[in-house]
Structure formats: C-alpha cells, structure tokens
Design brief:
The chain is of the alpha+beta class. It has one domain. About 35% of the residues lie in helices and about 20% in strands. A 5-stranded antiparallel sheet has the order 1-2-3-4-5. The radius of gyration is 18 Å and the shape is globular. The termini are far apart. About 10% of the residues have low confidence.
C-alpha cells in the first residue's frame, strides 16, 4: 500500500512539473495572440544544450524559452523569467520576432507594494525594437522611475543579459 501512495505522489509531481502554471500560461497566451495577431498557435519549449546554457548571462532552462509557431511557420519566441525586486521577485515575459527583435515586454506578476510602475506599458515600451546588438543603460537610454529604482535596475540588467544571451545563441547558430 505504501509503495502505491509514493508512486501516485511521484506521478502527480512529474505531471505538475510540465508546463507553465495555469495563471501564467493564460497571461502568456493572451499576449501572444495580441502581439502576433493569431488565434491559434503552438507554444513549445526550445531546447538549448546544457553546456551552452551554463555560459549564458540569462537563465535558459526547462519551461522558460519557447518557440511560437502557427501552421508550422515560426512566428517568434517567448522568454519567461524572474527578476529581483526589493524583497521579492517579479515574473516577466519577453516576446521576440523570428529575427530576435523584442516585440513586447510584460511584467506578469509583481509581488511588492512599491515599484509596480515598471509594469506600465509606457515604461516597458522602451524595450520594443531592441536587438542582440543593443546595450541598455539605466538613466541613459532606460528611464528611471522614482520609487522603483531597484526593480528598474533589475529589469534593465535582466534585459541586457537576455540580449547578450541571444547574441551568443545566434552566433552559435542555435537560434
């Protein structure tokens, strides 16, 4: 009897470990439909070889980098990650076209009382059109937000790391 319970528990854990949490997936789907102007699409994890992910500034693991396709045509990519705020982390999404140009960034879940202004469309528009060849600098080409300094610096660093990672993946012909 004990072995059955352990087996069921392990099976449940394995099943729950695949895919994004439902609340995140729903938000991601909505953004993909809007940005790519599609109703149906496939959303599949893009595998990056482990030996390469170790050398990247951004974290690429299971369930955070996806190919977006419609009728077997590549539309672009989605990158999901967490970045630190003052005492917690926030979840964000970056949508890229097939040429790795940033189409949209979105803060999906912000867990602090202060600094949530980084989730505003107006502030996040700064990242649109950025490519692997861009360098982002807080206070220079990225606008500061009073009361959100830590989150703004964190998002700027996260985007710089992602752009640098994309550059490396592109140079190695993985993307």
């Amino acid at each position: 009897m004990r072995i059955k319970q352990v087996s069921l528990l392990l099976a449940a854990l394995v099943l729950m470990s695949f895919g994004l949490p439902k609340n995140i997936q729903k938000k991601v789907d909505k953004e993909i439909k809007s940005v790519f102007n599609v109703e149906t699409f496939s959303f599949n994890a893009k595998e990056i070889p482990l030996e390469i992910t170790k050398s990247l500034p951004s974290k690429f693991g299971n369930n955070n980098f996806f190919k977006i396709e419609n009728n077997n045509q590549l539309l672009g990519y989605a990158y999901l990650a967490k970045a630190p705020s003052k005492t917690a982390q926030f979840d964000y999404l970056v949508l890229l076209d097939k040429d790795l140009v940033v189409l949209k960034t979105k803060v999906l879940i912000y867990r602090e009382e202060y600094g949530g202004e980084i989730g505003s469309k107006r502030w996040l528009k700064q990242f649109m059109g950025k490519t692997q060849n861009d360098s982002l600098r807080y206070g220079d080409n990225i606008i500061a937000i009073s009361g959100a300094t830590i989150s703004v610096r964190s998002m700027t660093n996260a985007m710089n790391n992602l752009l640098e990672s994309l550059k490396i993946l592109h140079s190695k012909r993985i993307l």
